TrEMBL record:
GO terms for biological process: methylation. Keywords: Methyltransferase, Transferase. The keyword Cell membrane does not apply. SUPFAM superfamilies: S-adenosyl-L-methionine-dependent methyltransferases (SSF53335). It holds the Pfam family Methyltransf_11. The lineage of its organism: Bacteria, Bacillati, Actinomycetota, Thermoleophilia, Solirubrobacterales. GO terms for molecular function: methyltransferase activity. It comes from Patulibacter brassicae. The keyword Transferase applies. Residues 69-167 form the Methyltransferase type domain. This is Class I SAM-dependent methyltransferase. It comes from the Bacteria.
Length: 247
């Protein structure tokens, strides 16, 4: 299993390098914090991404009394949307630097608790304490799928009976292979020297890994849940709706 401390170091570096870009790499890396987009556009895209996740899997609406957990919250892009709809949000990330930025971005909210996680579990969250879990573009970056399966078991530990989770995993092993074609090495070195290309693109903590669908479904069933819907099988954007068994 990969060392979660490597993921923490990697994402801390990315946060210092250009946090917004590494949270949403549709931004133009070379053009400063928000690239050609203004900050409002960055947050509006977060809102759209959040709704696409929930709508694609047919998730129920988040209730105003719900307690939500956002795994891999980054700078708080989706956390803000969840906080507007729920009673309370727990925002967890392996990177203390990302959490610092999320805390600053959401300084206007008193209904969010931030946690620097250990990169593999949902500690310090308690059993049966969460109504809704969301996670987007996080598990696809985890270098070892065993860690992702561990997170899935953890999701079912913290969910209350009948609670639900909507999250994205990669179901496309090819995209994570080190020999997957990207810009040539020479081009990348040149661009990096000019400050034009993002760092860490060959790092296992960026490349990530894919899950196996049958194993994922087995882990969920064994941990006390069931897959209610799975969209995007075989792709990097495989979206899953999981329901924790009723008590
Ligand atoms: C591409 S960003 C996405 C952030 C956020 N989900 C969003 O959509 O705006 C990936 C985030 O996952 C976090 N992350 C990566 N590996 C993690 C792990 N093992 N446990 C928790 N968070 C992790 C990174 O620090 C980073 O903030």
């Amino acid at each position: 299993m990969s060392d979660p401390r490597h993921m923490a170091r990697f994402w801390d570096e990315r946060a210092r390098e250009h946090a917004e870009y590494f949270v949403d790499n549709r931004l133009d890396y070379r053009r400063g914090d928000y690239g050609p987009d203004d900050p409002e556009d960055f947050w509006a895209k977060g809102r759209r991404d959040f709704d696409v996740l929930l709508e694609t899997v047919g998730a129920p609406a988040i209730g105003e009394r719900d307690v939500v957990l956002d795994i891999g919250c980054g700078v708080g892009r989706l956390t803000r949307v969840a906080a507007e709809r729920a009673a309370h949000v727990h925002a967890l990330d392996v990177s203390a630097e990302m959490i610092d930025r999320a805390r600053a971005n959401l300084a206007d909210r008193d209904d969010v608790t931030f946690h620097v996680g250990d990169g593999a579990t949902l500690r310090p969250l308690e059993d049966d304490s969460i109504d809704v879990v969301v996670s987007l573009v996080v598990f696809q970056h985890i270098p070892d799928p065993e860690i992702t399966y561990g997170y899935v078991r953890e999701i079912l530990r913290v969910l209350r009976p009948g609670g639900w989770a909507a999250f994205q995993v990669s179901d496309d092993p090819v995209i994570h292979a080190m020999d997957h074609p990207g810009p040539s090495l020479a081009r990348r070195i040149l661009a990096r020297l000019r400050g034009g290309l993002p760092g860490g693109q060959d790092d296992p903590a960026w490349r990530g890994s894919a899950i196996e669908r049958t194993r994922l479904e087995r882990e969920i069933a064994q941990a006390g849940g069931r897959v209610e819907r799975l969209e995007g099988a075989g792709t990097q954007y495989c979206l899953v709706l999981v329901r924790a068994d009723a008590a």
